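Lecture 7 notes: from sequence to structure.
We start with the chain below.
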Amino acid sequence: MSFDRLAPHYRWLEHALAGGVLQRARLAHLAALDGARSILLAGEGPGRFLAALRSRRPDARLTVVDASAAMLARARQVDTSPLTEYIEADLRTWRPPAGHFDALVTHCVLDCFGPATLGDVIARLAAAARPAATWVVTDFTVPPRGWQRLRARGVHRLMYGAFRVATRLEATRLTPPDPWLEAQGFTLRQRHPFNHGLLQADHWHRDGNVG
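Predicted structure tokens for the same chain:
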């Protein structure tokens, strides 16, 4: 699974397919990270959220992890702060330091994994967070009913089919991460839907009572 082939085209593709909706979803819970000193951005891509976060938090230590060297190269162009560390790694195998981060950010990355892998990825990322931590998640989703549900399922079929060809994407369908986040002690604080329920931006929090 690699997004190297998409890296040169990602921004115009995002604009063409989603306009500014995806970036608005990414930024929906930006303020939830204000108290965090050490923040992990997993699967950041070309750095649109990174740029906004660094502008708001010039003092924060950021760790940006992505499996795509080409995506990381583009992210480096938008944030050259010495407080930002870039790591090329696959989230399915990366072993982050335990209990290191005050906050985790996963924008449109958890929906890339199938159910056999997703639980393990979430568990290892959660172990990298401090006992009391924030997790900001943006993902595609399927509304519960109506034309919005039918529309979302159609969009997802096209999207997953195209991305499997272009990136060898693991997932073949959307797997909601909620049960695994809850199993790691995180509670949903806020959820904002976008584009008639096609996207959702979540603010999860763990209060420190883990296990």
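Points to note: The chain has one domain: 7-207. Residues 18 and 120 are 30 Å apart (CA to CA).
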